[in-house]
Design goal:
59% helix; 5 helices; mainly alpha; 98 residues; single chain; DNA polymerase, domain 1
Amino acid sequence: MTDSEKGGSSENRRKRLLFRAQRRGFKEVDLIFGTFAAQSLAGLDEAGLDQLEALLDAPDHDVFAWLKGDAPVPAAFDTPVFAQLKALCRRKDPTWNV
């Protein structure tokens, strides 16, 4: 689905996704998604934005378990964006956006 079909421009969609990434309600996931969005959102293509949006729609506790490796990642969520989020979590001495 294109940005115009979703009701806005690409810039507006990125702003909405950034807001959602930073305010999920589960602090650890807020930090992970918020940091990812601040660093990578501008470079995502339509497919990447769709993948991020799908992950933002998933329950926080499920996403956190997938990122920690405590639960298998469903195929629908095992995407390049999820791989980037997981790599972000594996960094040594990470700095998180607050």
